[in-house]
Amino acid sequence: MAEEQDRISHLPDDILIRILGLLPTKDVARSSLLSQAWRKLSPFSSLSLLMFQCPDFLESCRKNTDVSSFINAIDSSLRLRPKDVNLARLRLHLDLDDIESESLIDSWIDAALERKVKELDLYLRPRSIAKPYGLPAKIFSTTTITVLSLEQCRLEICGDIDLPALRKLCLRQIRCDEQAIRQLISSCPLIEDLDIASCGGLQKLHVSGLANLHRLEVICCYNLRRIEIDAPSLQHLVYHCGRLPCDMVLTPCEFLRELILHDPHITNDFLQNLDSGFPNLERLEIDSTRLQRIEISHHQLKRLELKLTPLQKEAKLKIDAPNLQSFTYSGYRMPLTSTISSMNTSSLREAEIHFRNYNDYSHFFIPQLKEFFEKSKNCQVINLLIKSKEELIIPRKLRPILSPPVYDIKHLYLRVSYCSRFQYIIDRMLWMCHPQTLSILSGTNVRFLKVLYNKFRNKEENPKCCTSCSIKCWRHYLKDVQIDSDESRLEIDQIIAMPELSQKSTNCKVRFRLKWRSQLL
Q1: Could you please report the per-residue DSSP string of 40-92?
Q2: CA distance linking residue 162 with residue 197, whole number of Å
Q3: What range defines the domain where residue 477 resides?
Q4: How many other β-carbons are positioned within 10 Å of the β-carbon of residue 26?
Q5: pTM
Q6: Residue 434 burial by CB count (10 A; 0-12/13-18/19+): exposed, middle or buried?
Q7: Which domain-ending residue is among 98, 116, 134?
Q8: Domain tally for the chain?
Q9: Which of 75, 92, 116 is the last residue of a domain?
Q10: pLDDT tens digit sequence for 449-472
Q11: Coiled-coil region(s) at which residues (predicted)?
């Protein structure tokens, strides 16, 4: 038999270079073992993207030989690269314990800057928290960098800053103070995207003078006491507070589209002024542990997410958002009936209710949830995520006065992670609404899905229950059940074969198609 031909060796060099450009850097380093053609090329010198991350190269136990080969790969790829071959991106994610001298990192950065690197991403884990890597001053006087991402470094500004092309700046776990940050930001007038996270030295942050800033994220700067934002073109703002109370001064901005606030010190006055201060706001996410009165009125708002804690069990909510399309509520009790009644849900297309672990499901909870179904009947999708130690049971004395089930809901998604008696959740949900499809999401306890499947499979044609009730349970209305796909059927077969007391969770979504009788014959 003729020896198999090495077809790769006959490909043109420009095609080989394009193939190399699609591979991870570690695979490029190994490419010379594949074919004679790879060895003819200088792979690293032809690549515009160089990404070195310790875990990629040191997959096995960390041995000195592994570390030295990793260091040599970085060194050769930068030092041997012709200076007239520009570099689009360099990523160095390193553990300083693997580097003999920080001057070696300095030389790699110098080599990248000489080759006019456009995107520089440095994550340099220090040997000790007290001694992070000190960034060389050259980084802050480079005319070609458009994206600069720095993590676990020390930022000290010495001299002037000249980054005229910078569009995106990311600072995470940086040792710095507010003066260094302010000087850096003010010297980069074209910044469009600014991300500051876990910078513990910051006590005050002032963001202004950036006419092109579209996106700003300030996350978990634990000692921050005051933040001032004046960005007229801002469209996306995320703020997660630190440990201390922080005053936030946010200048009104007509272009803001998304506002995500995780801050226990938000005031209701701030929320009430959203419509006037941010007239084009479309998405609002609020996570505040102290607000006891939440009033949101906004005519352009399309997506609203509220997260409440056990401390807010009696919080009063009022929502006036006639164009709301998506509503997410996460908390330890259902919003008050007045909240649901006040909501204009004519535009609502998707709703998600996440009941956290809470043991006081009173009788008032039942009508509230039922009313929510009725108000949400225009929704295409409703998600219910239940994590409760209490059984969500419809008390018998409420059954005679309940209104008929809601038929207009098309898709109901359900995830149940904990409950001691799953059958009550099934009976309750299907008593209140009759969806066209019922999807059990991944992460649901397999016992719940097994109980649900057995209920559907063993349903009687003419049930004998509920004879004295004018509104009968779901068994009387359900006409047919079908498993939606082969994937759903395979998941059910696997679950049925599991031990009875298995506490595992489902691996994929299982969907049932349900056909209902609109009324009893």
Answers
A1: HS-HHHH-SEEEEEHHHH--SS--HHHHHHHHHHHHHHHHSS-TTS--SEEEE
A2: 23
A3: 385-521
A4: 17
A5: 0.80
A6: buried
A7: 116
A8: 2
A9: 116
A10: 888 998 898 888 888 877 777 777
A11: none
